[in-house]
Amino acid sequence: MSGLFTEPTYVALCKALDAFSLRHQVIANNIANVSTPGYKAQEVFFQEELRDALKRAEAGTASSSNEACEEIKNVKPLVGYDERIYRLDSNSVDIDVEMAKLADNTLSYNTVAQLVSAKLRLLASVINEGRR
Amino acid sequence: MGIISSLSISGSGLTACRVQMDVIANNIANANTTRTPEGGPYRRQEVILEAAGPTTWPLTFAALLSRSFATRGAGRGKSPRYGETGEGLPSAGGVVVRGIISNPSPPKLVYDPSHPDANAQGYVAFPNVEVIKEMVDMIVATRAYEANVQAINSAKSMVTSALEIGRG
């Protein structure tokens, strides 16, 4: 039986928050270095791995939900960089793509934060109702 | 950590854009300056930018880098991923202004013997400043500044929504 905070969905949501926060740092660094010669734009990769880990968690049985959580906790976001060169100064930052990624990342982070909040509110209401 | 440290990254971007703007404004103001204290006409000034900061991402995330994904994404034209401690990763701390240098290209010579700064052959040396290029650089610096401001606003919005978790 999984504990209060070891449910796979909740663990995956917290992992996603960490990854979005790292992605924001990477995007901010790309934007700050838009004029630096020779700078290569960086990216964070984690969504496919997280999705695979979640699929494995859903396909598993209740007795293995702890392993499922461990698998989700082991998903590591990865920072890599893109070799494409757009400009004469060997800088590969595409400012339009970075701004779009910034907006998308902010929305995703805010959405996941709301989902985590909703989950905790659910727990809180269960605890409160159980008191009566 | 995380989003809070991204504020200092974006702050360094704002500083770099502001320095660029100052240098551009100085270049435009001195586009026709034929004499300087050190002799000769004004020379176009340029900013040297460098990606700055520690060479690995913060330790909490450096520990998150995974070796096992090194072969993925190879078909998308991306470079291989980096190892667990993030060795060899590019810098993670924003941008730093390394210095302001004078462009060494030769000044523009204009024939005008009546000018007080004309040389023996009657040529006046004007600065090597192209005002059109300075205007284009100014647009680039302005847009980069706005992009950095947007990054800061997004960080603030994310932190605010994180603070809402567990409230109510």
Topology:
The complex is a heterodimer of chains A (132) and B (168).
Chain A: H1 8-32, E1 42-45, H2 47-59, H3 65-73, E2 78-81, H4 95-131
Helix pairs in contact in A: 1-2, 1-3, 1-4, 2-3
Chain B: H1 3-29, E1 45-51, H2 59-62, E2 95-102, E3 108-111, E4 123-126, H3 131-163
Antiparallel strand pairs in B: 1-2, 3-4
Helix pairs in contact in B: 1-3
Can you tell me about this structure?
The complex is a heterodimer of chains A (132) and B (168). With 132 residues, chain A is mostly helical. Chain A is 64% helix and 6% strand. Chain A has four helices and two strands; from the N terminus they run H-E-H-H-E-H. Chain A has a two-stranded antiparallel sheet with strand order 1-2. Chain A is elongated. With 168 residues, chain B is an alpha+beta fold. In chain B, 38% of the residues lie in helices and 14% in strands. Chains A and B meet through helix 1, strand 1, strand 2 and helix 4 of A and helix 1, strand 1 and helix 3 of B.
**Largest beta-sheet details of chain A:** 2 strands, antiparallel
Care to count the β-strands of chain A? Answer: 2
Which percent band covers the strand fraction of chain A?
5-15%
Overall spatial form of chain A: elongated
Quaternary: heterodimer
Radius of gyration of chain B: 24 Å
Secondary-structure element string of chain A: HEHHEH
What class would the helix/strand composition of chain B place it in?
alpha+beta
Number of strands of chain B: 4
Distance between the termini of chain A: 24 Å
- What gross morphology of chain B would you assign? elongated
Derived from helix and strand composition plus strand pairing, the structural class of chain A reads: mainly alpha
What is the H-and-E element order of chain B? HEHEEEH
Q: Provide the residue-averaged pLDDT of chain B.
A: 80
Q: State the strand order across the main sheet of chain B.
A: 1-2
> Helicity level of chain B, as a percent range?
25-40%
Which percent bin holds the helix content of chain A? 55-70%
